[in-house]
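Example 5.3 — Phage holin family protein
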Amino acid sequence: MNYLFKVLLTALAVLLIAYLLPGVEVDNYVTAIWVAFIVGILFSILKPILVILTLPVTILTLGLFLFVINAALILLANNWIDGFSVSGFWTALLFSILLSLFESILYKLIEK
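Solution (predicted structure tokens):
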């Protein structure tokens, strides 16, 4: 139940970011839920593998390469989900940063 609630909060964050950020489009609420679900799966399964594979570059850039990994995963979700559109790499990078920020805020508000 807790996972489902977090997916719905992430979908809310996706809708809010799509409204605020030009270059990101989400067709409807169902698409936002799919984006939240797929991004959650990608970040929990594929991201740790990519972090291990790119560890030397991540250390060399003092962790900034993790932003590139996040943007690449957002672009991968963009290719998989119809109705979700991100215009380019920099938009995906900003989307991933804002998504992390909004998720942190929403999760902290719900925790208390």
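Remark. Residues 2-111 form one domain.
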